[in-house]
Amino acid sequence: MDDLLVQIQQWQFSDRHKAEQMLLGFVREIFPLNVIAVELRPSVVSLNSFNGFLTLASGSRLFFKTHTEPDPVIGEFYNAAILIKAGYPMVRPLYSSIEAGRQFLIYEVVEDPSVFDVAWQIEGGDPRFADLLTESQHRADRELLDIYLETSEIQSPKAAGVAAIHQLFYHRLTGRRLRGPYAHEATFVLPVGRCPMGELRRRTWTINGQRYTDNLDGLIDRSTHLLKPARGGASVVGHGDAHNGNLFLRRNDGRLIYFDPAFGGRHDPILDMAKPLFHNTFAMWMYYPEAKRDELKMHLRMTDDAVFIEHDYRLPAVRVMFLESKIDHVLTPLVYELRRRGWLSREWRMRLKAALFCCPLLTKDLADRSLFAADIGLLGLAFAVEMGAESTGERSLIDRALDKVEEQVR
User: Fold this and answer.
1) CA distance linking residue 263 with residue 246, whole number of Å
2) Is the pTM for the entire model greater than 0.85?
């Protein structure tokens, strides 16, 4: 049973009927509902989750969602109550199962669009909701800062060590997701041919003129150290996984409403910001790899000890807006206040970049050519390096943003 939801998540794309029948049996066993049909809704945003609709014998419909991890370490997920108490505007579940391996939430049907879908519509050339989304995002980020500051307190190493958010970073970094496709003996298919992963991990990278002194081996080692769970310090009540797929844009008042609190709880605010910073800004190649590949031009050159990449992947205005809003309305004033209180870790920037590094590398398998063509897989590795390492010479976009934070809080 522990792997059933993981199997359903995988089957939804290749044999949806089989996955729905498996899920129907699960729901009937777990919940006191007379469910007669299950409808999965495979989505590009469902990289490690699945959602859809339940039809009851009465004819009414409910919405469901769950997050899956192939090798979970943390046992307690879906701490929605702590988020609601802290003031997060949340879609509240009607029914929930939070037992390890059976974590599943059921809601009333939500008619409002996700922020993910609205942003993709804007990126595709439909500007109708651009101004509304910008205003809504700025307001939501200012409110998020207020929640961070109102719930902030020092957390012990022991309490920090069991926070669910570590499943997204440290436990992926030290688990099956890294050991399999990125093991030294594995092979990574590049646009120019096959390359042993061990050789790729030891090479240095130059990306669009930005030189990075850290190779993948060094980034993995440093990130593993920086992201160790049992690190005491500043903490807040955070959603943990507040990317745009877990937010709805409420049409009646323009507010952003949080959803799917799988990794909610008390944890480091720097870690809390990593998922939305990366996925809302830099990650559309991960969700729409074929569409982005059609637009992408890339040139790769390798020597015995270095990788040189030139590519033209650029951020649309709506992606820049997400980045600037988080930096200006949340991260900069947060760092300032933590420093004023004497709570700011000297490693805050490195720790954030370590978490950002995990997002492109470990959310999905970049070596899987059934998911990503060779050039998109390589682009994912390039983003991992850019997120995790410091750029020298010409500064990367993420480094320029963090430089700005440090300049403004001195």
Assistant:
1) 11
2) yes
